[in-house]
UniProtKB/TrEMBL annotation:
<dbReference type="Pfam" id="PF02020">
    <property type="entry name" value="W2"/>
</dbReference>
<dbReference type="InterPro" id="IPR016024">
    <property type="entry name" value="ARM-type_fold"/>
</dbReference>
<feature type="domain" description="W2">
    <location>
        <begin position="6"/>
        <end position="162"/>
    </location>
</feature>
<protein>
    <recommendedName>
        <fullName>W2 domain-containing protein</fullName>
    </recommendedName>
</protein>
<dbReference type="InterPro" id="IPR003307">
    <property type="entry name" value="W2_domain"/>
</dbReference>
Length: 171
């Protein structure tokens, strides 16, 4: 029963992260100044929400996504966003750790995208992998790749088009 409860919490957390990430993706555009971003975050989220693990995970992913252009990180833009990350993460051990889990999630997404784009792994094999549960932590990994599998099953030609469409749909 404890394992079922943990899975339910993971699913809820994953859905919450997606919701927060979608809202934050709307805020993080290259031309928006940090002050505007801080104001929007403070207007949209309470201090307790801003110190939650789902918020931190979504924040880190949104910042990284906004700095990811043409399969590269715009380090200047990332450095511009450092004060935002520091405000919500620095010197908060469990949230610092959560930020690393967010990077891990994002890395999985990027690698899966590359494996698919470069035709290393076929679509049907990705879908088979999603349903296999042989390794510990597999379910968590599948949840972290939800966006990839949504894209894969929604029929978009390019994952970048999918995320662009997803971000614009929320504007």
């Amino acid at each position: 029963e404890h394992k079922l409860q943990s899975i339910e919490q993971l699913i809820f957390s994953s859905l919450l992260i997606d919701q927060i990430e979608n809202k934050l993706n709307q805020i993080f555009t290259p031309s928006v100044e940090n002050k505007v971003i801080f104001d929007k975050i403070e207007k949209e989220y309470s201090p307790s929400e801003c110190s939650s693990k789902p918020f931190i995970r979504a924040l880190v992913i949104a910042v990284c996504n906004s700095c990811y252009n043409e399969k590269k990180i715009d380090t200047d833009l990332f450095k511009k966003r450092v004060p935002i990350l520091k405000k919500y993460i620095t010197n908060k051990g469990d949230l610092e750790l959560e930020s690393l889990f967010a990077i891990q999630t994002l890395t999985h997404r990027i690698i899966f995208d590359l494996m698919y784009d470069e035709e290393i792994v076929r679509e049907d094999v990705f879908l088979t992998w999603r349903t296999e549960d042989r390794e510990e932590g597999h379910g968590i990994c599948v949840l972290s790749l939800k966006a990839f599998f949504d894209w894969l099953t929604d029929g978009y030609n390019d994952i970048d088009d999918y995320f662009f469409q997803k971000i614009n749909k929320n504007h």
